[in-house]
Design a protein that fits this description.
This protein is α+β, with helices and mostly antiparallel strands. It has helices spanning 20-25, 40-45, 54-65, 72-86; strands at 4-14, 27-36, 92-100, 110-118. Strands 1-2-3-4 form a four-stranded antiparallel β-sheet.
């Protein structure tokens, strides 16, 4: 059985971007996150110690989002490294990071990066 802990559509205001103005003005970002982990023991015990706490995951992501970066790829890499380090039962991570209304003279809602990473091949 495959099992996952997920956090959908986390909203953050951050200062990521290549353009100097982006680091001053900032922008809205959305993260979708799915962590593959065995929830079998938690299903039996009803104890949060036997699973990945999505509240703790949120706090880790929030901390990384507060650190400005030029590239969303860099932000994703930092988030993935931190989650693998802090949550040893996570086997793989699916992460989608979207920048709302990117400053590129295009009619689109968001642009960003999607990453799938297994623990063995983590960035």
């Amino acid at each position: 059985m495959n099992s996952y802990v997920f956090l959908d559509r986390m909203h953050f205001f951050a200062r990521h971007g290549v353009g100097g103005q982006e680091t001053i003005v900032g922008n809205d970002f959305i993260i979708d996150l799915r962590l593959k982990t065995d929830i079998g023991r938690a299903a039996e015990t009803d104890d949060v110690i036997n699973t990945v706490s999505y509240a703790d995951v949120y706090e880790a992501v929030k901390t990384e989002m507060a650190i400005p970066s030029k590239l969303l790829e860099h932000v994703c890499g930092r988030i993935i490294k931190r989650l693998f380090r802090e949550f040893p039962t996570v086997e793989s991570i699916d992460l989608k990071l979207s920048k709302r209304n990117p400053p590129m003279n295009a009619d689109l809602d968001a642009a960003g990066v999607e990453v799938h990473c297994d623990r063995e091949e983590s960035v």
